Amino acid sequence: MKGASTLFQSWRTCSPRIPPGSFLLQTVKYPETCFCRNVQTVSYQIVKGSYIPTSQAVQPKTQTTVKPTPEIDTVGAFQKLPMVMPSVDILASALRKARRVEPTKGIANIARRERNRGAKQLDALMKELAAPLKAYLENFPKRKYLHPYERSLVELTLGDGVYEEVLKKVDALKRKVVVVGKEHASLCAKTLKKREAEESLKEGLEKLEGVFTSDGKAVDELMNIAKSLRAMPVVDLKTPTLCLVGAPNVGKSSLVRELSTGKPEVCNYPFTTRGILMGHIALNFKHFQVTDTPGLLKRSDEDRNNLEKLTLAVLSHLPTAILYVHDLTGECGTSPSDQFVIYKEIKERYSNHLWLDVVSKCDILQGSPVFFITDDNNAEVNAAPEAESYRKMGPAGAIHVSIKTKEGMNELKQRVHDLLLAQMDNLSSDELTSESLHP
Ligand SMILES: Nc1nc2c(ncn2[C@@H]2O[C@H](COP(=O)(O)OP(=O)(O)OP(=O)(O)O)[C@@H](O)[C@H]2O)c(=O)[nH]1
Ligand SMILES: [Mg+2]
Q: Which pLDDT score is estimated for 276?
């Protein structure tokens, strides 16, 4: 975690560190943009749950009893999750294997042979059921061993505490299987007659089957968790990343489609984008990542939905350069005045990120600024010269673009290219600093 925060701390400026006129010198030759991988458009269910900032990550209570939380500076844990078998398959396979177990050779007495067979089969069934559960429990990492970004994803996509709860249920099932299996194997081993041994075996098998059938849904829940976590976009922390941010419906996904060959969904309603979508751009033989994010509304963090929290998690935990999208046309549903408030807050909060502003939909942008009726509620703030100028032109230095007429798109591509190169420099120097600090 500390490694990741060092990355953020050492980003120097919030405005692009590209000499303002530098791209103009090359205006005739824009970089070729092409995608080497499509933007991942896998969506996943976002559930209600609170977002835990990294500052609240588990800290050791006392140095003597609790091991300190490790600093996690790598991602990719979800791709290493084990494949979980459906509970019915585990049960069927275990029953098949157990029934094949033969009694120990050389037992002549029928009753002794039968109780030996029964005890061995019950023991085998118990082990066959418990072994995969044990492996899952060992290979699903504890949340504190995840990178803060992945920790946020677990919480925001599965729900608060759901991950731990399901693992606990799997652990309880494993324990129950062991207890019931041992108990019945021992009962079977104590039988005196062939018939008793057969009945004891039958009863033990039924009991174990019953336990697994009734509580096995925990395994199926774990399987679904693994599926959704594995489907999360893969992020490479060492690759410069462009993150599109802005209010809902302002044209973020449309720009991702323009800047790349990825195809996130575009619709004329807020929160079309319902997850973090990751794409890769190849620019002049260099690779970059692009993330599309859900829109942010004007409200406090406590009131934010999990989609908005996902966007904040990306900005807080991943080293991204920000492409902030403003829609001043009055079409997106969030007034320019409200977008100004959101923008100011986000810019202040993530001032250590490289930054580029873009005003979208300039093909339908009117000459005079747009006001919403609700703007009267905050007349004083809206009358401030900065807010007034924002409503007319967007933030100082913003590029005006339209995906319909392609106006400004070449300039945007050039500036994005320069921004990502600047981020690449930052990442390399961060890596050097961290290497010299921790050789
Ligand atoms: N006229 C015009 N419409 C645009 C432009 N860019 C985007 N739109 C439209 O704006 C609407 C919203 O676009 P999206 O790209 O889905 O916006 P978004 O910010 O990703 O929206 P969410 O995912 O809901 O936050 C769509 O109907 C687009 O066709 C543009 O340059 N000009
Ligand atoms: Mg979108």
A: 86
H or E element in which residue 282 lies: strand 277-283
Which ligand has an atom closest to residue 251 CA? 1
Residue 48 pLDDT > 50 = no
Burial level of 105, CB count in 10 A (0-12/13-18/19+)?
exposed
Provide the whole-model pTM. Answer: 0.79
Strands 286-292, 355-359: pairing is unpaired
Helix, strand or coil, per DSSP, at residue 360: coil
Q: Which CATH class is domain 2-42+233-437?
A: alpha beta
Give domain limits for the chain: 2-42+233-437, 77-229
Q: What is the pLDDT of residues 251-291, one digit of tens each?
A: 999 999 999 766 788 888 888 888 888 888 888 788 899 99
Residue 255 CA to ligand 1 centre (angstroms): 8
CATH of 77-229, one of 1.20.120.1190, 3.50.50.60, 3.40.30.110, 1.10.760.10: 1.20.120.1190
Indicate which residue's Cα is closest to atom 30 of ligand 1. 361
CA 392–ligand 1 middle distance (angstroms): 20
Point out the ligand nearest to the CA of residue 297.
1
